[in-house]
Amino acid sequence: MIASASQLEEARAARASYRAGEVAPTSGVAHGLVQANLIAVPADWAFEVLLFAQRNPKPCPVLEVLDPGAYESTLAPGSDLRTDIPAYRIWREGELVEEITDAGAVWEEQHPDLVSFLIGCSFTFEAGLADAGIPIRHQELGRNVPMYRTSRACAPAGRLRGDMVVSMRPIPADRVADAVRISGRYPAVHGAPVHVGDPASLGIADLAAPEFGDPPEVRDGEVPVFWACGVTPQAAIMASRPPFALTHAPGHMFVTDVPDAEYLA
Amino acid sequence: MIASASQLEEARAARASYRAGEVAPTSGVAHGLVQANLIAVPADWAFEVLLFAQRNPKPCPVLEVLDPGAYESTLAPGSDLRTDIPAYRIWREGELVEEITDAGAVWEEQHPDLVSFLIGCSFTFEAGLADAGIPIRHQELGRNVPMYRTSRACAPAGRLRGDMVVSMRPIPADRVADAVRISGRYPAVHGAPVHVGDPASLGIADLAAPEFGDPPEVRDGEVPVFWACGVTPQAAIMASRPPFALTHAPGHMFVTDVPDAEYLA
């Protein structure tokens, strides 16, 4: 499965633009190519992050684990994880201390043993939903997808624990089955929804107040549909307080050169 | 997905029998329940084993990673990984030093930091093949499945590297497509074959001389079909020489309580 020349050009241009300082959510960018969540931790925490992902594959589908200190992803040759994401978050002892657009300095500070994980992102299957004529509201509105911390605990791994985070898309009731079917074809990027309707039973008190991203707009005849979200490791960082972590900012993903179809089951 | 009472009874009886000292290959035991490969390593090597599996998912599909020192698998409540496998191998500095039927003493020696990995096994999809009327020759003959080290290198992970090991089943030419289709439904247990026919191009010089298991019997009109094999981590241990490792003996698996259907894609 090879990306088209125009797709690759768009992905490379996007990464170059973020490298030069542009900040924007990446939903809809380089349509048809995989986007990824980033979490980078000191080597001492790497096993627990990988184990957490293995035990919680729906929210944490691992696409790539880089060698300690490495920053060029095999999913995008020539890329630089220190600069090619639009916005980053720096976490110290579980506290969000800074949001930055270039992680070069902090990478240097943590050198040589920062281990980077790229985790699948639901933006991948959004392309499949859009291709099937299912509206992607947050894209239509030019907003970031709304994300919520749930009351559903992930399986812990050593020192790492936390609740699952979900992304939400309002789907017309007559297209919910299609949305389940289509996203289910992409198990490596969260797959089928974890929950359809009834936000309260996920522990979400107010749909209008997401913990991450922008508020949604749910219209008459639409049902809120929830997918496991790659921001889940950030919630685990808040709960587990490792000395340091570097992540992407929610909705601001790493755009790869890999076609979505590569992850079709 | 719940196993039937008679399946569970058979699985528990098998584990109890192995615990009491019985030694036999497990192919065909507790038909319809998942079997697993074991590899247990010191905690210092655990990240590399998990990373090796993440980078080589066809030969190393991880079903469970236990906490350091733990030996009761969640795939079989009440089980004891120290005793419930028919035969074990002990590896020191990459050398096979002993084959034993009870790992209690060596577990004690390595306590408290032995980390156990359960890896999917192709015996799982054999049930699907048999149900479709595809002959499983090594079962018919009461032998162990033949396994071969190939010339195909796995993606390395830190200190861990090695060549892929495959299992081989001779399949009637008119059932090869069915065998591909059916095994492909089980991506968590090696999935579709990695290779059909032409052993030489996998680096297999002599089909009659497998590195692990028993010699095959390939009949007229049959094609040798190769699946990625969970013995691959053992080949990696030989090549990478960690100070200690405990594995199952090839073909002598851990029988779980989990139905094969749990891993249907």
Automatic annotation (TrEMBL), chains A, B:
InterPro entries in the record: D-Glu_cyclase, Putative_hydro-lyase, UPF0317
Keywords from the named record: Lyase
GO MF: lyase activity
Residue stretches spanning the membrane: none
EC number: 4.2.1.-
Enzyme class: lyase
HAMAP family: Hydro_lyase
UniProt family annotation: Belongs to the D-glutamate cyclase family.
UniProt-recorded name of the protein: Putative hydro-lyase G5C66_22510
